[in-house]
């Protein structure tokens, strides 16, 4: 394990700073550099965090910096971008955020950065693909937060409904971090018992599962309607992913990873469970999906590929 764990964050908005604050509270990095288009904001955020750090269990070196600081960083996290309004989906952000992620990634790479890139900017599956294409880093080293936040929401909600700790709920949200996501319930377990068998023994109707997932899929919209944006959930999601890499955990997390045919699709970034360690995506966990689940994954990939071809690529090629 490296002695000095260095993270650079690009985008010091609500998502970026929720993540940064969680690092300071948990004290699980050594060095943190903040970059934003709005340099004054990055400086103000760094000052505020430095003051918070006086009460933290570990002292972290923090500053507002610039892209030259990415050289030698273990991980650069991209949270720069616009957010959706309550009448928009994440996919409506595609054109604006493609331009932002392209520009940010070019500047990161110009520094000589050679670590792991983690992307949260929405629509995250497409923006991770943009970061990979522009950076030309190996695909295992460019990771999107994917459906990790959705999976946390699923485990939370199932935990509430079934009165079992979320730590003992093993269920994954697959596909786009968006409306085409789904849960392969055939692989959802409470402890080692399948969730369908748990429902059967408790005499709970299976319809409960899709009701729970509807809430999970709509959770982002529900929060945006009430408070304009979501940030604590994704802040801790980013922290979890970063720790898995920094500590070479080989933990299974549902991230946006480049598809290489494991689930019948090649070429697009989409959310699947994967083993995450120091080298990024070590291996995608290949689950045997039921035919209907497999179809939903293919539909999700086809949707993303269509937007990539019709919208993202023309933006990338226009520069
Ligand atoms: N993947 C996920 O699960 C989630 C993703 N998000 C996404 O995260 C992104 C950020 O959201 P918030 O932090 O709430 O937005 P925000 O508006 O609070 O912050 C965005 C920041 O990006 C900066 N920025 C914009 N263009 C930039 C550029 N070219 N270079 C450097 N910095 C730039 C802005 O100055 C601002 O500080 C959005 O795209 C949002 O949809 C939000 C929640 C969950
Ligand atoms: C905004 C967003 O992507 C979420 O909270 O799921």
What does this entry look like structurally?
The chain is α/β, with parallel strands linked by helices and 319 residues long. It has two domains: 6-144, Rossmann fold; 148-312, L-2-Hydroxyisocaproate Dehydrogenase, Chain A, domain 2, CATH 3.90.110. Helix content is 45%, strand content 18%. The protein is built from nine helices and twelve strands. The chain has a six-stranded parallel β-sheet with strand order 3-2-1-4-5-6, sandwiched between helices. A three-stranded antiparallel β-sheet has the order 7-8-9. It has a three-stranded antiparallel β-sheet with strand order 10-11-12. Strand 2, helix 2 (39-53) and strand 3 (61-64) form a beta-alpha-beta unit. The longest helix is centred in the last third of the chain and has 27 residues, at 291-317. The model has no long low-confidence stretch (mean pLDDT 97). The structure holds 1,4-dihydronicotinamide adenine dinucleotide (NAI) and pyruvic acid. Pyruvic acid binds next to loops.
Brief rundown of the structure:
This protein is an alpha/beta fold and 319 residues long. It has helices at 14-26, 39-53, 94-110, 124-135, 148-162, 195-201, 207-227, 232-246, 291-317; strands at residues 6-10, 31-35, 61-64, 75-78, 116-119, 142-144, 169-170, 189-190, 193-194, 251-260, 266-277, 280-284. The protein contains nine helices and twelve strands.
